[in-house]
Each structure stands twice: as structure tokens, then as C-alpha cells.
Design a protein that fits this description.
By secondary structure, this protein is of the alpha/beta class. It is built from nine helices and nine strands.
Length: about 250
């Protein structure tokens, strides 16, 4: 299925210029990554259709989706970053996250935000495109990145991709972490058995998030083939419904 025809999305064959600086790993002679079938078939309503992107990227919507935990999760991710560091985020997200992370990184650092969809990159540019630390580019999360990073922040991406993508994404992101750097996942987690939201989340996953429930069965670090190169720690939130997993790469 060609999403650019069906939904009016132009996946342009061009690098993205942000604050006068070009997205440095984008090859303008190479073809822009095609939208995966799963993304078009499952998530058009949420991420592909431009009108829906504008509608859903509101703090009230994000708060409802994350059961009012969005600020706690955002602070948990922000706490792993250092001012002046080099950070990769392999998917755009709704809400205030990119602004808060960019602020923490500061003008002496680099904040690379990539996404496979032009509509999402354009949306990120409207939020942080005027900041000197921001770099935005079209890129597939399975191959994204330019060199090594102090922190790679994978924020609510893994639950939205099929299992083969989970492995490919995790392995690529792990390869982008410098020795002593961090690979961070923030995502869903299996809630406590008596969690009042468990039946609701189960239905949400069944009807809207078909790839998410595997995170109830597998640890995120299991998707990293060379996981023994990292020292892992894990923290859960809101009765176990969400998790932050951080791997520090051995020097």
C-alpha cells in the first residue's frame, strides 16, 4: 500500500534543515524510507493522517492515553539525560516530551529526533525546530543514527511495532550507544494482576495496539542480541503499567 497516495503524505527525497543545520546522516541521493504496511494498516488514524496528527497532539489527549502519568514518565526519561550530551530519539511522540528533553540537553548538546514519516518530522520541527540543539530527519528506526550517542531514548515505540521490528530496532539502537552511554526504553509493562486498569488496557491492546501485549511476556532487554554488553536496571510506574529500562554500555 502506498501511503503517499492514499493519505496525501509526501515522503520527500530531501534532508530536513533545522535551525540552519542539515540533518547530517540523511543521504539526499537515497530513497526516503517507505512506510511499513503495519503502520499504514494499523496506525493511519493515529500517526499517518495529518488532520489526526494535529488533533491528537494535545496535552489533554496525551494525559488521557497515559492515565495522567505523562509528566511522571517524561521526568523519568529526562532524568537520564545530561546537559551538553548527544541524544538520539528514534520516533516522534505527542505531547511536551521533545521540548522538555531539548531543554535538558541544552544548546551545547545535540538532540536527534527521527521518524519514518514526514508529517511527524514536520510536527516536531514546529515544536523545537528553532533550537540549536535540534536535528530532525526522516529515518527508519531500524537503521537510524549518526555515529554514537551518550543516550538513546526509545520512548513508547516498541509496543507499536511487530516483533521482528522490535528486534531490529533494539539492536540498531544498542549499536548507537557509546561505551559508558545509555540505551533507555520507556514503554508499557504488564500491570499487577489486580490493577483496576488491566481489563481496559487488555481491550485497548486487542483493538488498537495489536503488537503491545508481547511486552507483557518479554523483557525489553531481551530484544537486544548483545544484551550482555549492558548493565541493566528497571523501574515500573503506576502499578506496573509502565516501565523504564536503562542499559549502560560497558566501557
Amino acid at each position: 500500500m502506498n501511503a503517499s497516495v492514499d493519505f496525501g503524505i509526501e515522503q520527500e527525497n530531501a534532508a530536513v534543515a533545522v535551525a540552519g543545520k542539515q540533518a547530517i546522516w540523511t543521504d539526499t541521493s537515497a530513497s526516503v524510507p517507505a512506510l511499513p504496511d503495519y503502520l499504514v494498516d494499523v496506525y493511519t488514524w493515529a500517526y499517518v493522517a495529518p488532520k489526526m496528527v494535529d488533533l491528537l497532539d494535545r496535552e489533554l489527549v496525551v494525559a488521557a492515553i497515559l492515565w495522567l502519568q505523562q509528566n511522571k514518565l517524561m521526568r523519568a526519561a529526562r532524568a537520564e539525560l545530561e546537559p551538553g550530551s548527544r541524544v538520539l530519539q528514534p520516533a516522534a511522540v505527542y505531547g511536551k516530551l521533545v521540548g522538555h528533553l531539548a531543554e535538558k540537553i541544552g544548546p551545547t548538546g545535540e538532540y536527534h529526533v527521527t521518524d519514518i514519516q514526514k508529517v511527524q518530522i514536520d510536527h516536531v520541527k514546529r515544536k523545537i525546530g528553532n533550537l540549536p540543539q535540534a536535528r530532525c530527519a526522516l529515518s527508519d528506526a531500524r537503521t537510524t543514527g549518526d555515529g554514537l550517542y551518550d543516550t538513546v531514548c526509545c520512548y513508547f515505540l516498541m509496543h507499536e511495532v511487530p516483533d521482528d521490528y522490535k528486534h531490529d530496532i533494539a539492536n540498531n539502537l544498542a549499536s548507537r550507544v557509546k561505551p559508558g552511554g545509555k540505551l533507555m526504553f520507556v514503554d508499557y509493562h504488564e500491570p499487577a494482576f489486580l490493577h483496576p486498569m488491566r481489563p481496559i488496557i487488555w481491550l485497548v491492546f486487542k483493538w488498537l495496539e495489536p503488537f503491545a501485549k508481547t511486552l507483557w511476556k518479554h523483557e525489553l532487554r531481551e530484544y537486544v542480541a548483545d544484551g550482555d554488553q549492558f548493565e541493566w536496571r528497571k523501574e515500573t510506574f503506576f502499578g506496573g503499567l509502565y516501565q523504564k529500562v536503562v542499559g549502560t554500555k560497558r566501557a
